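call fold(seq) -> tokens
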Amino acid sequence: MDFSKSGDMLAVGGKDYNVKIYDDSTKSLATTLKAAGTINEGHSNRVFSVKFTEDPNVLLSGGWDNTIFIWDIRAKKPVGLIYGPHICGDSIDMKGDIVLTGSYSNKNVLQLWSLSKRELITNIPWNGHATETYEHGYLYAAMFEKQGNYIAAGGAGKNEVHFFKNGGKYDLLGKIMLDNTVTSIDFSQEKKMLALGCGNGFTYNFTFNA
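ret:
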């Protein structure tokens, strides 16, 4: 789920393949975004991540059908799509025109896309080696640091969180090794703090010094 930037709308995705928009002031369902009959008009499988853009009327959603849909809430239909990412958790984030996706896959697991052009900008090598054939990400979570300078992502591959510099060669800065699947990541707003949610029911807090 994700709140709009103003905090007045909440978008929720789930196993019914739909994205529901709630009015936070009335705590009531405002609209439902769903497929209208063709494969390009909405999700055909579970929705695992939603993200509002800077425009409060436009949001992204992704899931098991390998498609990021770009929805216009006013029109109640997609106005574009990005095909490729296999989204299985909270692994869509945005910074300006740049969309970050983390896929539950063994290749091309971490990617950056142009929202306006609907095209791939780059694959970020999971282990910092662009020549690797297979990667062990199997990502459930991916996000930008709040100022947009860094990227963090984690999942089930080796129960790791990897940190990257955002921009340039997208260098791998380091990693955290855990004993269970990483299912959620969040950076603090100001101080360099990082919280990780894991499949063992624990939340781990770290100081992030990069």
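The longest strand covers residues 77-83.
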